[in-house]
Amino acid sequence: MKAFNSMTKFGAGLILATLGAFAGTNAQAAGGHGCGTYTQTDGTEVTLECSKAPIDLTNKASLQRGAAMFMNYCVGCHSAQYVRHSRIAQDLDIPPELVEKYLMVTTKSIGDHVTAQINPEVQGEWFGAAPPDLSLETRLRGDDWVYTYLLSFYEDPSRPWGSNNLVLANAAMPHVLYNLQNELGKAEYEKRVGDLVNYMAWMAEPVRHDRKIYGAFVIIFLLILLIPVYLLNKEFWKDVK
Ligand code: HEC
């Protein structure tokens, strides 16, 4: 009976730990961030649901398109100081020559980190808010927040740039993808922004995909380990009455 009790406790503990591990992964994947509220012209307050970002770190083509977008549209103002160009070449399967030719917009050496073209501090004085470093942005705000933010610019003549944002009210950032949005149309534009956020998610945690695989292996290993541990436990308690 005693053996049975301790075994049940052990089993329950392991199951709880497993569930906890999965819940943790999911909570992180979901980001757990809302996308804020905004007031409509008629005065009603609307809660903005985050749109789901299409994150798939195994999709190299999407990551490559995202990297190109990031380098073309974002590093003018934002840095990504924890990311080296050489790591982009390696992880995203882009030949280093191509990275040097097309993606190294702000530095000379492929070992350099991704810096902003214009010093963010100086920009802070110009725009009223300095563009933050984006290396870890999707971990700070959540993938879905960043995706929704980038899709939520709208025209607002009262703002210095003529644009505003539903997620980050009175954002100091202009709608830098305005032309692209008009050029591509809604569906294709959302896909491209999805690639961009996918790339940003890779940047924030390059090992995220591997981590999930290792996590699954560890849990499978623990479950298999449960069998000999259970048998041992039975053996040890066999003679104790
Ligand atoms: C002209 C300069 C400029 C460019 C180009 C630019 N940004 Fe920004 N961005 C800013 C500024 C300034 C802020 C700060 C906004 C604020 O706090 O009001 C900002 C804020 C942000 C934020 C929100 C940060 C936070 O957590 O509050 C994200 C996300 C972001 N930018 C992503 C991007 C991406 C992705 C691109 C490329 C498509 C881009 N930005 C291009 C100037 C720029």
Automatic annotation (TrEMBL):
<keyword id="KW-0732">Signal</keyword>
<dbReference type="InterPro" id="IPR009056">
    <property type="entry name" value="Cyt_c-like_dom"/>
</dbReference>
<keyword id="KW-1133">Transmembrane helix</keyword>
<feature type="domain" description="Cytochrome c">
    <location>
        <begin position="61"/>
        <end position="204"/>
    </location>
</feature>
<keyword id="KW-0408">Iron</keyword>
<dbReference type="Pfam" id="PF02167">
    <property type="entry name" value="Cytochrom_C1"/>
</dbReference>
<feature type="transmembrane region" description="Helical">
    <location>
        <begin position="213"/>
        <end position="232"/>
    </location>
</feature>
<dbReference type="InterPro" id="IPR002326">
    <property type="entry name" value="Cyt_c1"/>
</dbReference>
<keyword id="KW-0349">Heme</keyword>
<keyword id="KW-0472">Membrane</keyword>
<keyword id="KW-0479">Metal-binding</keyword>
<keyword id="KW-0812">Transmembrane</keyword>
<dbReference type="InterPro" id="IPR036909">
    <property type="entry name" value="Cyt_c-like_dom_sf"/>
</dbReference>
<protein>
    <submittedName>
        <fullName>Cytochrome c1</fullName>
    </submittedName>
</protein>
<feature type="signal peptide">
    <location>
        <begin position="1"/>
        <end position="23"/>
    </location>
</feature>
